[in-house]
Amino acid sequence: AAGVIQSPRHLIKEKRETATLKCYPIPRHDTVYWYQQGPGQDPQFLISFYEKMQSDKGSIPDRFSAQQFSDYHSELNMSSLELGDSALYFCASSLAGAGNTIYFGEGSWLTVV
Amino acid sequence: KNQVEQSPQSLIILEGKNCTLQCNYTVSPFSNLRWYKQDTGRGPVSLTIMTFSENTKSNGRYTATLDADTKQSSLHITASQLSDSASYICVVVSGTYKYIFGTGTRLKVLA
């Protein structure tokens, strides 16, 4: 069965550059979540979308933005990158509805140098 | 291969009943095991964090157990409420910061 696909798996950027991460949810899933995990830290919830609308917002910096497109894939855009943005970025997807299982992708590694 | 498997995949219970969710893992090295509750469309909420030496930990109506020998954990929910309807995710942390997520158990509590 298809899982949550994230791309790229690894990305290296310089400070002040911009990066875009993509997430392709499991087919027919309408909800997407983004998480950030820095080295030695717990995953932090950033933002989620349901039916292309933001459904919840966590600790997402103002320099970051995200959206969900008509085909339900999502993109996380990060601008003015800082060294502290180096982290593993997880995407997850689910069907809307109380108690539906949430499936995680394998993550995208972002290194800012 | 590091894996975290949860069962059942889904569960439906009546309000006021108890239930137990299972988590089996094959992760090495093992640092700790965490249970999260996540509502659809929302961020996760941490329920418990258990280290190798801890067998049981409670958080209100939630009680987690850990058997490090058999590599099994359970999450017991007592006197379920409608608001308990959510996805429950078992996460095993390996080494310093590698998080291995289970696929979760979706719980629906009916009135």
Give the helix/strand layout:
The complex is a heterodimer of chains A (113) and B (111).
Chain A (H helix, E strand, L loop, with lengths): L4 E3 L2 E4 L5 E6 L6 E7 L6 E7 L2 E5 L6 E5 L5 E5 L8 E8 L8 E2 L3 E5 L1
Chain B lengths: L2 E5 L2 E5 L4 E8 L5 E7 L5 E8 L4 E4 L2 E6 L4 E6 L8 E9 L3 E4 L3 E6 L1
Parallel strand pairs in B: 2-11
Antiparallel strand pairs in B: 1-3, 3-8, 4-5, 4-9, 6-7, 7-8, 9-10, 9-11
End-to-end CA span of chain A: 36 Å
Number of helices of chain A: 0
What is the terminal separation of chain B in angstroms?
A: 41 Å
Taking all residues together, what is the mean pLDDT of chain B? 88
What sort of overall outline of chain A do the alpha carbons produce when their principal axes are compared?
globular
Structural class of chain B: mainly beta
Low-confidence stretches of chain A: none
Number of strands of chain A: 11
Largest sheet report of chain B: 6 strands, mixed
Relative helix content of chain A: under 10%
Indicate the structural class of chain A: mainly beta
Unreliably modeled segments of chain B? none
- Secondary-structure element order of chain B, as H and E? EEEEEEEEEEE
- DSSP strand tally of chain B: 11
Helices and strands of chain A, in order, run as: EEEEEEEEEEE
Q: Describe the global form of chain B.
A: globular
